[in-house]
Design goal:
The chain is an alpha+beta fold. The protein has 7 helices and 7 strands. The protein has one domain (about 5-155). The protein has a 5-stranded mixed beta sheet with strand order 1-6-5-7-2. A two-stranded antiparallel ribbon has the order 3-4. β3 and β4 (about 40-45) form a beta hairpin. It comes from mine drainage metagenome. This is Cyclic beta 1-2 glucan synthetase.
């Protein structure tokens, strides 16, 4: 297995998104290069993360979701897509959804942290494996329908 696509249970993978993920990972500029001294990805990316939008059905599920859920669905022409970390540092922050190169990911993270010692591991994995943004691929996920569900999700 060369790549793994990772999603949450409520994440929707649109048609052709997997093909776009694989194509982006295979691009020569994205191929990960591991620095032997630091065991970090120094060029390219071991992880590529898409944009994540709110699914249309979940945005209409409650007044809370309508008020705080932002714009749901596809809106490719009205907004420029950018990520502050990607723009400033050439790498983005990882939120657990995307594609990763199995070998590079393992080389960068194997034995780095004690098992079960980090609850929210996505961000730190993205730092060592060098996460990048794929701005032209979008996944969709459900927005919490209640304030309490939203707070519990953010608390982790």
């Amino acid at each position: 297995v060369k790549y793994v696509i990772t999603l949450d249970t409520d994440t929707q993978l649109p048609r052709d998104a997997a093909r776009q993920f694989i194509g982006a990972m295979a691009h020569p500029l994205n191929r990960p290069v591991i620095d032997a001294a630091t065991r970090r990805v120094s060029r390219g990316h071991a992880i590529l993360q898409p944009r994540v939008g709110i699914s249309l059905p979940s945005a209409a599920r409650s007044a809370y979701a309508q008020l705080f859920g932002s714009d749901a669905g596809i809106d490719p022409y009205t907004r420029a897509v950018s990520d502050l970390y990607q723009d400033l540092f050439g790498e983005g922050s990882f939120i657990g959804k995307g594609i990763y190169d199995v070998d590079a990911f393992e080389q960068a993270l194997d034995g780095r942290f004690a098992e079960n010692s980090i609850l929210s591991h996505d961000l730190v994995e993205g730092c060592f494996a060098r996460s990048g943004l794929i701005s032209d691929v979008q996944l969709y996920e459900d927005y919490p329908s209640r304030y309490s569900a939203d707070v519990n999700r953010r608390h982790r």
